[in-house]
Design a protein that fits this description.
Blueprint lengths: L20 H7 L5 H14 L3 H7 L5 H11 L17 H4 L4 H16 L7 E6 L6 H14 L4 E5 L7 H4 L8 H5 L9 E2 L6 E4 L8 H6 L1 H13 L2 E5 L8 H9 L1 E7 L5 H13 L3 E8 L2
Parallel strand pairs: 1-5, 1-6, 2-4, 2-5, 6-7
Antiparallel strand pairs: 3-4
Helix pairs in contact: 2-3, 6-7
Length: about 290
């Protein structure tokens, strides 16, 4: 039975025909050629979707079908059994969970209020350690990349960087090394499994992070990033502990203010807000995380 002659998919805008679910499951190693033929026969006889036919025959699971659909629609996410990144990256491992659905809602708000207004850089700022700033920045970068936006995540927390752990970066060089001229932006990390996403790690932990981030070099890096990417998300150190976040946010122009329910003190949050406003930073949104 010739797969190409069964319910052919419509052309994509660039003239390509997306690969059919059966072909994808075959290439993924989830189906044998014989199982493919049997599932196609059941599909034709019953009129059900191919994935449902294959599942009814016990050849594939629902997660296999969802994975194939994600590939077909160019929606990048990872199977749960893979260990490519930390499990803190929920948007990559659990894209259909309520938590990630909330992230997509946040993405829509940020797009309307900020990125669709011509801005490209956004600092993610929290008051204290443990408020979830790094996790939110990482997952937000993933959902923007899943939208098809060329997305760069910069770890500007040069004191206690977290993105290296979250993405399991093998590249030891990063932002600090670019700032002192030791490396250029070729140290940006890209991933085959997460299309459209790039990450610039913090790099070597320096003795003078505030001075490095206050130099013109950081603004120049952001200028280059704006030329190459649609969305630039910048992770920052806790704003109550240091003044690094204010310097970073001032260069970005806008900030997403993050707090943790039952953990972040309102006085600390108000203090950070006031510091950002003094630096002429627009607070694009403020969110409260449950965990």
């Amino acid at each position: 039975m010739n797969i190409s002659h069964i319910n052919p998919s419509p052309m994509t805008p660039d003239g390509r025909r997306p690969m059919m679910i059966g072909q994808l499951l075959l290439e993924m190693g989830k189906l044998t050629s014989d199982q493919l033929e049997r599932a196609l026969a059941l599909q034709q006889k019953s009129g059900m979707a191919f994935g449902e036919a294959a599942k009814k025959l016990g050849f594939v699971s629902e997660s296999d079908i969802q994975r194939a659909l994600a590939i077909q629609f160019e929606y990048s996410y990872l199977p749960r059994h893979e260990e490519t990144f930390s499990r803190r990256l929920q948007a990559a491992y659990e894209p259909f969970s309520p938590q990630v659905e909330a992230l997509r809602a946040l993405r829509s708000q940020l797009a309307l209020r900020w990125f669709n207004q011509g801005f490209k850089t956004l600092a993610v700022v929290a008051a204290n350690p443990g408020d979830g700033c790094s996790d939110l920045a990482a997952n937000l970068a993933v959902v923007f990349s899943q939208l098809g936006e060329r997305t760069l995540l910069i770890d500007a927390n040069l004191r206690t960087p977290e993105q290296r752990k979250i993405f399991k970066l093998q590249q030891p060089r990063g932002l600090s090394d670019v700032l002192i001229g030791r490396n250029d932006l070729s140290v940006v990390c890209r991933f085959d499994s997460l299309k459209n996403l790039s990450v610039l790690g913090a790099g070597t932990v320096p003795p003078n992070p505030q001075e490095l981030l206050s130099r013109r070099g950081f603004a120049a890096i952001l200028d280059k990033a704006r030329e190459q990417y649609d969305v630039v998300i910048v992770d920052t150190p806790p704003a109550v502990v240091t003044s690094d976040a204010q310097a970073i946010a001032a260069n970005c122009g806008g900030a997403l203010l993050v707090s943790q329910r039952n953990l972040t003190r309102m006085a600390d949050l108000a203090n950070v807000r006031d510091q950002l406003l003094v630096c002429d930073v627009q607070i694009v949104a403020a969110i409260v995380k449950d965990s």
